[in-house]
What we know:
globular; Rossmann fold; Dihydrodipicolinate Reductase, domain 2; about 475 residues; 2 domains
Amino acid sequence: MSAVPPFIPRVTSTAKVLVIGGTGRVGGSVVRALREMVPQEPPLAGMQPIIVVGGRDRGAFLQTRERLMEQDLAAMMTEGREFSGEGLFGSRGGGDEGGGGFVEGERVQLGGNRPTLKFFEVDATDPSSVAHAIESTSCDLVVHTAGPFQRSTRAAVLEGLLRSGHKCGYVDVCDDYSAAMMAKQMHEEAVSKGVTAILSGGIWPGVSNLMALEAAELLGGVDKVESTEFSFFTAGSGGAGATLISATFLILAEKALAYEKGEAVHYPAGSGIRSVDFGESIGSRKVYRINLLETESCHHVLGVPNTSTYFATAPEFWNDLLRLTTLLPSDILGNRELMYSFSDFSMPVIRAVDAFVGAANAMRVDARDKNGRHAVCLYGHSDLEVCVGEAVASFAIELLLQRITGGPPAVPPGVWLPEETCKNDKALRERIVRRSARTAYQYDSYVVKEGERDGEREERNRFESISRGIMAGR
Length: 474
């Protein structure tokens, strides 16, 4: 292994984040969360963060900017603050800066320090374009949200970061294990260049992986866990855009992987229907097998011999339609361009259904040990788009703290999956989950009382009461 360069913090009053894919639904939610959460983080308080939205389409950036302005105005009205209009998106046209596609955004002044928002033209599939964007922006952190990650042929954004020679943090929302493994191949190069990269740092995967660690802790540690099951629910599309919808179709084109007694077993996507109780608000739902990253990462990183992943949406006929799509030939269902076009074409219908069912998101992790003890970890949020942004920002803030405030890094240089970052660092895990649960309506973890199915709790994790207190005070 190459020697690790000495850690040299960039002590400064400004943090700069490049969000590649920031004009999409996921990327836009990350931009919004960073704008809200970075100035609220005590060690970063008083900073004036600069967020650079990286994408191919300046028009999409302007739409994203307008949407953020509307959200800010709504927040001001809710909080009863006076709006003068002064300084709000001051020069709406913007102007080119630095020659390389850099478009100056406008500072949003809504009380306290809010980030300057800028745009930089970048092709997320081209490492040279990414390297140019990183060099030009001199960012402290790169957040990669430009999916879908399924059927990717290279980890172009991380490759571009390492090629640039610029030392900064990296977080992505990769939800495909094969794509994550391509990025993991650059681990040694990242170590040698002093770059810390967190893969799959979103809500699921991301926080879901840390929930598996929390459930394992309740059973006495990961070495005691015999099986871990992940179950996910999203009402409608959860407010997702065409890119995320198309990723769902790409996942349905794959067999659903499970590990049973340490051996890989592949099931048809949409099979294995069973009922799962997601707790408050959502209640019991019928879920089915789907191929998700957590199956692989929980098995390989934590060494759990039996792992599986399940999913459901609402209304119920969406589940029926999704299971029917698995009957399509794989060369059709697994075609990235075709599925994106179909998803984009279907958006009016999807949005109409969303208006009736909402955008709630829920996660449940069930862990069992060899003696049958059963630990459960539950998460629930009223809006998938919001909770995705807050989850990514929660991982991102850790790397910003490393980069800016000094001190030994909590996550060392290298390329890491979520479980790897926190497997031996409970305090780090709790910080990330605590931030991620800041607006959740539910976060709970407990051991099921012996002789009960799930209704009574034998013991609770100490963190549950902490997260409840935070949410109660929001």
